[in-house]
Write a structure and sequence with these properties.
The complex is a heterodimer of chains A (about 300) and B (about 400). By secondary structure, chain A is an alpha/beta fold. Chain A has 6 helices and 17 strands. Classes of the chains: A alpha/beta (about 300), B alpha/beta (about 400).
């Protein structure tokens, strides 16, 4: 039996039984407040974003697209789950994917607990988006040829296994990757969406402030400064001292440097009173004094209200 | 040595033949159905004549000509074969970016004329029915034509601007007339609903409607072409004989893509989708095209056109991984925002037993990458590149504004 998606959605939301049906088109169960879906569901597209679903029935069939974004209770998915594309963005409890998962497109953006890959599965041809999966420590070896791979913000990820390849780009912004495997040699590199070269990505120690200042593309320049470390950059670039005073860590300076086609880089250079380490903390370019900058960092718009009793 | 080529688009259907004899070659060219004209050129030796012939053939192939043999175009010049099948090459309409500004001059290889009820209707012409601001003629003229004997012989029809002085009008009324008179159009094999230039109505302003009733009413239809994305629908599409589907839009609704992906077109050979931009209603992602790219939908597909796409780079990166490339002979990513990123992905196109042509006309690819693309063992049309350098911020699809 073929059922229109509106009818099916209404029945499911009302808790009615469906039996074995095929649903043509997109089944819209966004914000569905049930924890479970009926068995023997077969649809072209299922969108249950923002729902309270904890998982999907083991016999669910989806021909095209599965969207389960922003599902706060989603913890597991059925073995052998197959769909043309699967989007699971921002599912805070999702820790792993099922065995024999099969898809072309997978988006796990901001699944903070996600870390467990199945032993085997098929992800190939499309894009694999793992942006800001801060719990992720590894990638599996069974991933096929992709269009794009995005591991930006995967702060615990240290390497990409050999065998993974892309036809377009790999985004490694903020991941702890120090080189690409042989299978990815020659792939275009991105740093949180900005096109970068291998030197910026893997050899930031070779970058100079002069180079960064001469870079005409403001986005690339920002990444270069991030990669160099802003402290080294302002030192090498001989930033202007806008203000200077003393705090418990010693001399404190408000440093500024003008950048072409970008707002000036202004930050507070200070030393930690406990460790003695030097820091450079960026502040809005409207800041005029060290005290005003420190107050802004502490959340005070009016610096006269910021009178810390102790700074450690 | 002889080579016979043909070309068809919205403006013309032409042939171009070349024959090498000794140290000279003779080129014969003209409109299909005519004898054309011949030019003979002599060279100092046979080798030079052969080289010149090869150069000319390559040039023609690059412009979109195909070998007449196997194209379905009969040498006599008739655009349909004995079985009444329209040749695949005749399914294309807008080949160059500049074609968008003009009404179709030919359709399925036949000459197009605006219908004039005061003249006798002919069977060898495809009639276009349209209204303008002053005259709402599309339906009265169509009804007039349907009462003539020529209707029974008509293999194709074109519906031009239907809105007259009501910009919000959809072609629903026109479709009703066609469906009601389906018995009068026993040979209808191709229909174009929306041959409308930007001067008549911008592509993104055209109000379309559900075109599925046309498919249902005409079981012998081989080609459905339409223009305009606003309101466009194809509810539960199903057709045993449809060979070509072309949907031109400035922004394609995800619902239309879903309909195509859930359609039953077992004989579809030609699929042309204009994906468009977000500003004009495109609300799909590349992932929504996965069922098409998976290769499981249309077992007979030979031409895949994903055109006028704002995210042609991302699209190209996925398309090169598609198993469809082992089955189709033409991949068309023209009229979109294809830059060096997409071109680099296309350089990785795997060797395919069938793929012959890559259409990248109107693109944003640098000269260096165009040179690299030309080294592929495919006919690559990378004409009309934009000269924008890295600092230029704006890149547009061919039809968006």
């Amino acid at each position: 039996m073929v059922l229109a998606p509106e009818e099916a959605a209404e029945a499911i939301r009302a808790g009615r039984k469906l039996g074995s049906v095929r649903i043509s088109g997109r089944l819209d169960l966004t914000k569905f407040d049930g924890e479970r879906l009926p068995a023997r569901l077969h649809c072209y597209e299922l969108d249950a974003s923002g729902s309270q679903l904890t998982g999907l029935p083991p016999d669910v069939r989806i021909d095209g697209r599965l969207v389960l974004d922003n599902c706060p209770a989603l913890t597991s998915l059925p073995e052998g789950l197959t769909a043309g594309s699967i989007s699971l963005r921002n599912c805070p409890l999702l820790e792993g994917l099922p065995e024999n998962l099969c898809t072309w497109f997978l988006d796990l953006t901001a699944c903070q607990r996600f870390s467990n890959w199945p032993e085997t599965g098929t992800i190939r041809n499309g894009s694999l988006i793992l942006r800001n999966c801060i719990g992720l420590c590894s990638l599996p070896t069974w991933i096929g040829r992709l269009a794009q791979l995005d591991i930006a913000g995967c702060v615990r990820l240290r390497e990409i296994p050999d065998g993974i390849s892309v036809s377009s780009w790999v985004d490694i912004g903020g991941a702890r990757i120090s080189s690409l495997p042989p299978s990815l040699q020659g792939a275009a590199l991105r740093w949180r969406g900005v096109r970068v070269n291998e030197r910026i990505a893997f050899h930031p120690e070779q970058l100079t402030a002069k180079e960064a200042l001469e870079e005409r593309n403001a986005e690339v320049r920002r990444v270069m400064i991030e990669r160099m470390g802003p402290l080294r950059f302002v030192k090498e670039a001989k930033a202007k001292i806008l203000d200077e005073d003393r705090d418990r860590g010693g001399i404190r300076q408000l440093l500024g440097i003008n950048l072409q086609e970008d707002e000036p880089l202004v930050g507070l250079s200070c030393h930690c009173p406990s460790s003695g380490r030097q820091y450079f903390l960026r502040v809005p370019p409207t800041m005029k004094t060290c005290h005003q900058a420190a107050a802004w960092m502490a959340g005070f718009d009016d610096p006269s209200l910021y009178r810390p009793e102790i700074e450690t | 040595m002889k080579r016979e080529l043909v070309y068809m688009d919205a403006k013309s259907s032409k042939f171009w033949n070349i024959e090498l004899t000794g140290n000279s070659h003779t080129v014969t060219y003209g409109r299909i159905g005519t004898d054309g004209q011949s030019v003979t050129k002599s060279f100092p030796d046979e080798e030079k004549a052969r080289k010149d012939m090869e150069k000319l053939v390559k040039e023609k192939l690059g412009k979109g000509y195909v070998d007449a043999a196997g194209s379905g175009v009969s040498p006599a010049g008739s655009a349909t074969s004995a079985e009444g099948l329209i040749p695949l090459i005749a399914f294309s309409s807008i080949n160059r970016r500049d074609d968008i500004g003009q009404n179709a001059g030919t359709f399925i290889g036949k000459r197009v004329a605006d219908y004039d009820p005061d003249k006798p209707a002919r069977a060898d012409v495809v009639y276009r029915f349209r209204s303008d601001w002053e005259n709402n003629e599309v339906i009265p003229h169509l009804e007039h034509f349907l009462a003539t004997d020529a209707a029974a012989e008509a293999s194709a029809l074109i519906i031009g601007a239907w809105h007259g002085d009501e910009p919000e009008l959809t072609p629903e009324g026109v479709i009703e007339v066609l469906v009601k008179s389906k018995a009068r159009l026993g040979k209808l094999a191709a229909i174009y609903i929306g041959d409308i230039t930007s001067e008549e109505n911008e592509m993104s302003w055209i109000k379309q409607c559900d075109l599925a009733p046309v498919l249902k009413a005409f079981p012998r239809l081989q080609l459905l072409r339409s223009r305009g994305g606003d309101g466009l629908e194809l509810t539960s599409p199903e057709h045993e004989n449809l060979r070509g589907l072309a949907l031109e839009t400035g922004g394609m609704d995800v619902g239309v893509i879903r309909s195509v992906c859930t359609s039953t077109f077992p004989n579809l050979e030609y699929l042309e989708l204009w994906l468009g931009t977000e500003q004009y209603g495109a609300n799909h992602t590349i992932a929504d095209l996965q069922p098409i790219l998976s290769g499981q939908l249309f077992p007979k597909l030979k031409y895949l056109g994903l055109r006028n796409c704002e995210r042609a780079d991302d699209l190209a990166a996925v398309v090169v991984n598609s198993p469809l490339l082992n089955r189709i002979d033409t991949l068309d990513l023209s009229l979109g925002v294809l830059t060096d990123d997409g071109a680099r992905a296309l350089l990785k196109v795997p060797p395919s037993p069938t793929l012959k042509k890559l259409n990248l006309h109107y693109n944003f690819i640098s000269a260096d990458l165009v040179r690299q693309l030309k080294t592929l063992s495919l006919t690559v049309d990378a004409s009309k590149p934009s000269n924008m350098d890295d600092d230029d911020e704006w890149r547009f699809v061919a039809v968006g504004e």
